[in-house]
Amino acid sequence: MRCTLRQLFFSSLLSTGLLAHSPSPVRLELFPDTLRRPAGDTAILTLRLQLAPGWYTYSLTRQLNADGIGPEPLQITAAPPSLLHLAGTIHAPKPHRKYDEGFQMEVEYYTGSVTFRVPVQIVAEAPGAYTAQLSVVYQVCDSTRCLPPEEVQLPVYLIVQRAASGASAPSAAVPSHPQPAPLGTSAPRSAALESASPREPQSAGESPSTAARGAVPDNLWLLLSIAAGAGGFALLTPCVFPMIPITVSFFTKRAERNRRRILRDALLYALGIMVTFVGLGFLFSLLFGATGIQEFATNPWVNLSIAALFVAFALNLFGAYELMLPPRLLNRLQKASERHGTLGVLLMGLTFSLTSFTCTVPFVGTALVAIAGGKWFYPLVGMSVFAAVFAAPFFLLALFPAALAALPRAGAWMNAIKVVMGFLELAAAVKFLSNADLVWGWGIMPRELFLASWIACGVLIVLYLLGIFRLPHDTPVEHVGPVRVLAAVFFGTLTLWLTTGLWGAPLGELDAFLPPREYSELIRPHAATVRPTSQPTELSWYDRLDVAFAEARQQQAPIFIDFTGFTCTNCRWMETNVFSKPQVRALLERMVRVRLFTDRRTEPYLSNKRFQQERFGTVELPFYAILSPTGEILATAGFTRDIDAFTNFLRRGLLQTAESL
After folding, report:
1. Strand pairing of 42-51 and 26-31?
2. Residue range 454-476: average pLDDT?
3. 423 closest CA partner among 383, 464, 364
4. Mean confidence (pLDDT) of the chain
5. Is the pLDDT confidence value at 157 over 80?
6. Long-range contact list for 343-348, CB < 8 A, 24+ apart?
7. What pLDDT sits at residue 453?
8. How far apart are CA 514 and CA 502, in angstroms?
């Protein structure tokens, strides 16, 4: 007997060390967690205890054997006594019973999901807002070990009201816990919109337009970095680099005639280059508009076309063929640029841009697709940055022709850059094929296959850089230089890191670009949202707004709406890197959550999109709104990397709900 108890004791200590970094086998939920009642009133709190498979905990009853020894019972208490205390017997389900060899007696225990109804009384006398706690002490065991007893404090938010004379005490009915509607169902548009009747935003809330504007800087810097990077890489291509001596020769001859015009000519030449690419961005914005750009970026046919285009770009970079502009057009522009005036310099810049377009089109295409994020000015500003980075070296060379001697000569290193970029273009094609797969629900590009494709591209890049294989247009690699080795180490490390994702390891920022972990649920033909089943620690979501409003009115809790998309990278980033934060999750659990997808061209997604546009004046994704149970807009927000800003947005919605009830 003592030996057995000693084994249990050391088993508990050992288990603590082994599971220090493992997910907890217990999840506690308390609802409602906010009580708005007069002093002295009673209410029923519902405590749900969810145990992982294979684990159990003991019942509320103190159980002792003949030696006065027994398991640690489950204990539920309220604190502090000056605010809240238990008001009667805790209602618990009937426990299981089994004979325990360690304690030499029958013990009562629970497994799976257990719900307790806890009667409490508000003791605080003065009206105001307070925070009490429901304390839960439990010990869990599995077939081989027991963990030490653990105490968890669950906050209970009290809003003590003044007692109304002659008013009857509020009902202590227990609201049901929010459960998502079955997948594949959708609310009629009229029901959804009637449940959320349009009302003006509260003065303390953030207006939708403000939220939409607030989401821009976080996205914009990343997207402009992509555009700048594309402009930098385009400078290293074989079509562009050999143009440097031609540029220097052109401006040296002009300087011999008039040195005073060197600065002006250099600026005009750079301006001619920029006008070409900025004009392309302007045309892109003009054709699609603000809403159209987002539809362009999420359309599955467009994604398939872009995937095919990237494959074509990759083959071009591999040297399979060359993309050529009509020679007659280039000859006319070349003759016009030989004039001595201002127009001649501008046309020289335009001619250079078109001549180099054979090699720059993959980079221009990549930048345009990346910056098509729902705002008309993204392509315009993005191509301005691309053109500025691309034109800057030629401006300097036109201003200081002698600097040509310091530049490296063209050679095999340029081909190496083209081939590496070709493999990266193939990886980009996989991403756009995955977007079409998610929207149409084909089920051909799960997360594992997506990662395997990227890993294959990474392996091929490493092998190519190390000279293990070469393409037909390459010269033999006599020796692998330090730059190639460093590049191979970089891509090799990145590839090994990607490999860990095949076994479920988180990939941080990159997770946003991959198919979601709930891929098998999302590709269902009519799936509108997901309630994870394999990971009980995930938040659950409604997919019907009318059902969410009914639950919110019953609980007197705010509604958190997540407008999201199947192909939305920033949406996935928020779900992976923001919603998972403990402080954010704790606030979201106090709301009725509904997730509305808007980027499929069938119902209910079209109704979801119309509702977002009509009610909030935007179709931007991601977009978040907090509504009161009566449908008032309390706060809105967009994409952000600032965790504190997002938690403040959630707290503002909860606070305004409490004040309005």
Report:
1. antiparallel
2. 86
3. 464
4. 72
5. yes
6. 345/254, 345/265, 345/268, 345/269, 345/272, 346/268, 346/269, 346/271, 346/272, 346/275, 347/272, 348/250, 348/269, 348/272
7. 93
8. 11
Listed residue (486, 487, 484, 429) closest to 454, CA to CA? 429
3 state DSSP class of 511:
helix
Please check whether residue 270 is in contact with residue 395, taking contact to mean a CB–CB distance below 8 angstroms.
yes
The predicted structure's pLDDT at residue 381: 73
Whole-model pTM: value is: 0.48
Q: Please determine, for residue 562, whether its predicted confidence score (pLDDT) is greater than 90.
A: yes
User: Which conformational region is residue 207 in: left (phi greater than 0), alpha (psi within -120 to 50 degrees), or beta?
Assistant: beta
Domain 2-161 has CATH 2.60.120.330: no
pLDDT of residue 246: 56
75, pLDDT greater than 80: yes
Q: Give the pLDDT band of residue 222 (cuts 50, 70, 90).
A: low
State the residue for tokens 């030989």. 338
Q: What is the Cα–Cα distance from 661 to 659, expressed in whole angstroms?
A: 6
- Decide which of 324 and 48 is more confident: 48
The DSSP bridge pattern shows strands 559-564 and 623-627 to be antiparallel
The tokens describing 449, both together, are 């296959």
Task: Name residue 44's beta-bridge partners.
Answer: 119
Question: β-pairing, 559-564 with 592-597?
Answer: parallel
At 438 the pLDDT is 78
Amino acid code (one letter) for 616: F
End-to-end CA distance of the chain: 58
CATH of span 189-214+520-529+540-660: 3.40.30.10
Residue 489's pLDDT band (boundaries 50, 70, 90)?
very high
Unique residue bearing structure tokens 């992509």: 226
3-class SS string, 614-638: HHHCCCCCCEEEEECCCCCEEEEEE
Phi, psi dihedrals of residue 414, rounded to the nearest 5°: -70, -40
Is residue 485 within 8 A of residue 541, CB to CB? The reply is: no
Mean pLDDT of 79-85: 88
Would the pLDDT of 407 be above 60? no
Distances (CA, A) of 373 to 110, 294, 357, 636: 50, 6, 24, 19
What are the phi and psi torsion angles at 158 (to 5°)?
Answer: -105, 130
Question: b vs e for 241-250, b when ≥16 Cβ sit within 10 Å of the residue's Cβ?
Answer: beebeebbeb
Give strand ranges (E) for 190-297: none
| Strand (E) or helix (H) holding 12 | helix 2-18
Q: What residues does each domain of the chain span?
A: 2-161, 189-214+520-529+540-660, 216-508
Give Cα 660 to chain centroid, integer Å: 32
Q: How many CB atoms lie within 10 A of CB 601?
A: 13
The answer to whether 635 and 656 have CB atoms below 8 angstroms apart is yes
Which amino acid is located at 467 in the chain? G
pLDDT of res. 370: 54
